[in-house]
Write a structure and sequence with these properties.
Number of helices: 1
Protein name: Rieske 2Fe-2S domain-containing protein
Pfam families: Rieske
Helix content: under 10%
Structural class: mainly beta
Shape: globular
Mean pLDDT: 97
Radius of gyration: 13 Å
Bound molecules: FE2/S2 (inorganic) cluster
Number of strands: 10
CATH superfamily: Rieske [2Fe-2S] iron-sulphur domain
Distance between the termini: 9 Å
Keywords: 2Fe-2S, Iron, Iron-sulfur, Metal-binding
Largest sheet: 6 strands, antiparallel
InterPro entries: Rieske_2Fe-2S, Rieske_2Fe-2S_sf
Amino acid sequence: MKTFILGHSKEEVLRLVPENSIRLVQLGEEKICLTRKGETVYGFEAFCPHRRVSLAQGFVTPFREVVCPLHQYRFDIKTGSVRLGDCRDLQVFSTELTDVGLKILLPDQ
Ligand code: FES
């Protein structure tokens, strides 16, 4: 497992990841997407499991789903499970908002 810290404070992370937006971030060699509901930040893989389109171009619904821009498949941003569509689940990453930034855990490749 690799640990990354984004930003230097909770306030900075809240600014970097506006609520309901999707931000693409580079962590080492890996790109992931982040979105936020309140003070909970969700991390998930950057490309749709269906046809590898960038999910940063998609949007987040009020029902805690990310919607892919190409075929509108929907994934739960907390668990990654497919809510609408026919492909594997989305990979999600563990995050923790702390006073010194956002801690993100990525599995080893
Ligand atoms: S590429 Fe994402 S739903 Fe088809």
